[in-house]
Structure formats: C-alpha cells, structure tokens
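Action item from last week, closing it out:
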Amino acid sequence: MNMSFHLTTPQMRRGEKDVTRRLGWAKLKPGDRFFAIEKGQGLKKGEKVKRICQCECVSNTKEMLFEIVRRPFRGVRSECAREGFPLLSPCEFVQMFCREMGVTQETMVNRIEFKRV
C-alpha cells in the first residue's frame, strides 16, 4: 500500500512528520503498514514511484478539518508541526488544506497518526 506525500516530501524525508490528514484512507487501521512515497499520480511514462520510508498506522480517526484548532500540543510540538508545517498556525493550516484539496473547514477528514518502521 502506498500513500503519497507530494506536498510534504522534504518533511517526510527529514522525519519531521508523524500526522497526516486525508480525504480517503478510512479503512486504514492501527498496525497497518504502508509505504510513504513522493507521488503516486501524474507519473510520466517510464517514471517509477519513489519510496521515502515504510510507516505503520498508530491511529486513524475521523474528524472535521477545523478540529485541528482545538488540538492541544503534544509535548512541545503543535499539531501543525506534526503535519510538517511548524510555521503555520492552525487556521493557516486549515486555509492551506482547503485551497490544496478544494474542500471547506467543515469537511470530514481522516487524521492519521503514524510512525516510521
């Protein structure tokens, strides 16, 4: 199973990201493993998928996108930092996600926490 990290490839390569929000992936459950890849769609003829690392799902919960604003810090890392965007506020993250994915802040997303294996 491959999960694309096209918008956060550098953060994944540096090991800075351990949470992702997705419109799909509802069936992913704790313990399931997947490969983080650079991109999975739009590959040119002859191009191959580039793996970043293997990951294991820790949790997968459905929530409204805007819930990121209410999430407490985990240690010293904000939820935005865990998503790979330490310089964004939660509201800025929601705006960026809505713009990139064409959704609203009320959209239900899957918040996937994972670890590298």
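Closing note: The chain is about 20% helix and 30% strand.
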